[in-house]
Amino acid sequence: MLFFYFIAAPSVFYWGFNLVKPLMTKHTLSKIEIFDDNKYKWLEAINSFLPASAIPKKLGGAAEMKSFY
To answer: Domain spans of the chain?
Structure first.
């Protein structure tokens, strides 16, 4: 199942989303969640389907991310 999480969405995003929302089906809308920059709200949602080992430490998880640069 595919979900879309928009994290730290700016206020202009909410405005644009409200314009296209009437064109989407209820099924599609049920798969979309929009979060502000409150880390505790979006981290809980992401942890419901991803283990902490897959989330970088700087985002609140436990994964050690290696840079390719």
So the answer is: 19-62
